[in-house]
Amino acid sequence: KAGQISGKLERVYYGELLGTLLDLSLVRRAGRLLEDYTTTFRGFRPQIDLQGTDISIAAAEVVSAVSRRGYPEWDLIDTDDQEAFARALAVRIAAVNPFEGLAIEFSPGEHLPSVLLDRERFGDVLLYLLERWAAAGAAGVRLATGLEGSLVWVSLDSRGCRGPLGEAALRFAARSAGLSGGRLDAGDTGVRLEYPAMDTDLPGS
Description:
By secondary structure, the chain is α+β, with helices and mostly antiparallel strands. The chain has helices at 2-13, 16-21, 24-41, 55-67, 74-77, 82-94, 119-135, 167-179; strands spanning 51-53, 103-107, 115-117, 140-148, 151-157, 183-186, 190-196.
């Protein structure tokens, strides 16, 4: 039964109409979650794609993505017919920016070695963590990258807001971090994602 429901959800999320209304990054994230679920449901481990990556650049891409509008204003102005206007208006109405009230301060480290990670999954877990802070009412989050021994890390810390991850959310974030090639370390007011520098392994892995 769970497999049947998953199949129905896949058809909904990959449908042409929904894809025109929702941010495509959300559709892709939902698709990966469904794929991971069905893979795990069948008794297999989800596939990951580890590649050498500059973690500061990957984190900056996420910060840039959440800082820009999810819709172009000119689509409403430049439409040529009623159908195109209705579609552009639907996209505008459906657009919700959960990060509108969240100020993100990004401090990338210098001269960091490349890491092995799954870039798409890394983006997913970082977005998830930022969403949790935004939903918890944090006014701002400090995001930084750095190096400690053989580990390259990405930290998220919020002043005036305790870490927003409950037990279930923490398990999900930790599993997502593992699938991206790293691990998650949670504190009172922040979390840290840790990844092995190239040609090294995570301690205890």
